[in-house]
Design a protein that fits this description.
With 267 residues, the protein is mostly beta strands. It folds into two domains: 41-143 and 253-264, Thrombin, subunit H (Beta Barrel); 145-250, Trypsin-like serine proteases (Thrombin, subunit H). The chain is built from three helices and 14 strands. It has helices spanning 5-12, 73-76, 255-264, and strands at residues 34-35, 43-49, 55-65, 68-71, 90-94, 104-113, 131-135, 145-146, 155-160, 177-184, 198-201, 217-221, 227-236, 246-250. The longest helix is centred in the C-terminal third of the chain and has 10 residues, at 255-264.
Length: 267
Amino acid sequence: MRLKRSAQLALAAGILVTPLFISAYPAVAIVGGHDATVDYSGMASVQEQQPDDTFEHACGATLLHPLYVVTAAHCVTNFPDGSGKDPNRFRVRIGSADRTTGGTLASVAQVIPHPDWKWLSVAGQPASDLAMLRLSTPVLAIPFFIAPPSGSPAAVRLIGWGKTQPNGSGAYPTVLQEDNSFLLPMSACAPAGITAGELCLDGHGGHGICVGDSGGPVLQQLSSHIWLAVGIAGRGAGTACGDAVIVLTDLVYFGPWILHVVLTGQA
């Protein structure tokens, strides 16, 4: 269900969040970027427990409410049924440019995938690649507001701790990376099987998203200190990072479901 214009404006004003590649869906990192130059208080690192009981960065996430972050469903669900993984396997570090220290480290109480999420998407149907993580306790970091993209083309900023090499090799960077890009017409992402509820992002020229950035916010700047979340990183259509378009999940499109989860705690 798409939002009416009035609802889009309400989301842009922050009402929703005020205290209040293809089939496999690989996680996607910032290639061609640089260390973050801005304090992104709503940025989060989803960290998953490893066999040795340590926690390692897995995906990005976007703080929308003191108790909720949204991330890509493929980051936190089981294959192939799409059910949510055990929340005890995850923790989330929020509000720090260093994924290993600082900010707030929160445990996860509940993994809530979108009910239409499918690992193997059906042509013509929303991929619905998003999940809400309910935190065990509220955090004080300032959440991102949701807004529809503006501008033609719409200029956006990518942020994340994903791999920085085009082939997805090497370690995840410790310091948050950022880079600029822009949105493309949906037709440009036809090779990636784009559907309703998704946005198309330019990822050519050695710049773009790679392994480890899925679920992180794609932002537009409203003012010097305010960034709006238009989508979250999803999947790519190329064989290497920075060589093809990227498909994003449209947060405004899924705004009613996000609000429903925040209000009820249920999918």
